[in-house]
Amino acid sequence: MPKHTVEREIGGRILRFETGEIARLASGAVLASYGDSTVLCSAMRAKPRPGLDFFPLQCDYREKLGAGGKFPGGFRKREGPPSEKEILTMRNMDRPIRPLFPDGFIDEVQIQAWVMSHDGQNDTDVLACCAASAALSLTDAPFEGPVATVRIGRIVTDDGEEFVLNPTQAQMEFSDLDLLLCGHRDGVNMIEVGAAEVPEDALLAAIEFGYEEGIKPILELQEELIKVAGVEKKPGELSVPTDDVVAEVKKLMESKLTEARQIPGKADRSARVDELRTELLDEHFAVAPGLTYSDHVAAEKRQRHAKEAFRQLEKKITRRLIVEKGVRADGRSYDEIRPLHMKVGYLARTHGSALFQRGETQSMVMCTLGTGRDEQIVDGLMPEYAKKFYLHYNFPPFCVGEAGRIMGPGRREIGHGALAERSLLSVLPDVEDFPYTVRLISDITESNGSSSMASVCGGCLAMMDAGVPIKATVAGISVGRFTADDGTVTHVTDILGEEDFFGEMDFKVSGTRDGITGVQLDLKARGLWFDEIAQVFTQAK
Q: 107 partner at 20 to 30 Å CA-CA among 425, 509, 522, 532?
């Protein structure tokens, strides 16, 4: 492939995509530059592994310290496991891309982003997300993109408050808003916000500014690159149930599954659904012994299709009960939150503690106060800094009634902890008034949806119990989305785990009485427009 380069001014600096010179054996590769920061991103598509029933997308982001003229610390002098910042960037690469593949696509897709140059001002997390989309768009994988990612800040000038597109590190020091926004031609499909009680209308204006001034031009730049260097898309064989399997599963299970989905209580409901799934697979789609190899493979494939058809049927029933009959699994209306129960001073020897319960979601939070020696030093390609407040989130297997693998925090736990931390950060007292270091630990002891928002509420209570003079109380809630066959959209407040799994959206919003402090949007639908985002903010309030 010959070398191709496209570039455009975005936010006062040149954004450049190059392909055809480096990593030419990859399915797609892009060298993306913004200012003097550069990211090499490769995308690989491989054949599906036999027996796979999910989409194995892997996104990896690594900051090579030599890119900024630094040495790794320690004795090994080599980059080690990914840092929290790298893990959060991997999640931000994955979340807007994953829903843009067709159902049933199970080919292995691997995206790797390496920071090759860093100027200390233009952070590479946003650049890596854009490069991932560009590299993936150059492959033959059926990616329904491209997508673009931007960061928006808000600073106060002599002329008033001003939004800044892709602010530098120096500008972010004066910003009361850190908005990470991702979207495509059909709207916004990912939002991450940390804010200092920013009003809803200001945040909506920032989202619209970021989409119009940043996302659209970057999409045009990627489309220009695809036009000169892209290849024809090849969906391959999609692993979707055949019509006869779908019809048979519906005939056998629809009425039983409809009853099961209305059983109150997560444990009883899940147990009944599991019984029905086992009945379907073992009695109606069992793999008979003594088959020839080809017949055995065909029978296993039919059984996998039946399992997927069962999942799709459960999803349709859940949606139908909510949008047509107004019935949620636990009997609530669409805008009703679950019963609340709170205790403070729950643990005798901690500095502060709280137990927060919302329905079947429970968070036990402890607060520990320390001195400057307990600050967390964060070192990387950006300038080193110290954190006087941090929140750690733990999600053990028993909280969902399972006996799973016990290990350190995974990407999900890192991401949920970061969201809860951002949501509480702006209400902490000024250092001059309260010089202590604050650590929160949120242990999820029961979970049926919105455990990160329970961590926000429990964390706020635990800090008050510890005597931290916070500026305001913070609460968080999650809003889901279901679409009827006629296109009617229903938003549901305080979603259950099943509503998250079968729904189209998990829109988490946290804030005080005066404004928003944290937002996280995960979307399975194509995209959201600004008026619907405004509706969600109103309902979350």
A: 522
Q: What is the pLDDT of residues 191-223, one digit of tens each?
A: 999 999 999 999 999 999 999 999 999 999 999
Contact between residue 422 and residue 414 where contact means Cβ atoms under 8 Å apart: no
Which numeric CATH code is attached to 340-540?
Answer: 3.30.230.70
Tokens of residue 212, six digits: 């119009």
Tokens describing residue 293? 């190899």
Res 379: pLDDT: 86
For tokens 């964060």, the residue is: 378
Q: Where are the domains positioned within the chain?
A: 4-73+80-229, 243-323, 340-540
Name the burial class of residue 438, with classes exposed (0-12), middle (13-18) and buried (19+) by CB atoms within 10 angstroms of its CB.
Answer: buried
Q: Which fold has domain 243-323?
A: Arc Repressor Mutant, subunit A (1.10.10)
Q: C-alpha distances in angstroms, 55 versus 49, 107, 109? A: 10, 7, 8
How confident is the model at residue 494, as a pLDDT? 95
What token pair was written down for 385? 């800094």
Residues 6+ apart with CB under 8 A from 151: 123, 126, 165, 166, 167, 178, 179, 180, 181
Q: What is the pLDDT of residues 401-442, one digit of tens each?
A: 999 889 889 999 999 999 999 999 999 999 999 999 999 999
Q: Which residues contact 512 (CB under 8 A, 6 or more apart)?
A: 197, 427, 472, 473, 474
